[in-house]
Amino acid sequence: MSDKRFRVIYKEGKISGCKVIVDRETGVNYLFTWDGYAGGLTVLVDKDGKPIVTPNIDRYGYDI
User: Which pLDDT tens digit goes with each residue over 23-50?
Assistant: First the structure.
């Protein structure tokens, strides 16, 4: 088990792209996007506007 609080569970792209990052303490999912030197971070939400939560992230063994 890692000491890092955040874990990347999905990524695509090099110069422009995106990553899905999970907070290992809360399970909340974030989307980070970038294009060149610009980027942005936002909470991923479901259709009701509630944060998407991935419980027990370490159990599933995501390795990116």
Answer: 999 999 999 999 999 999 999 999 999 9
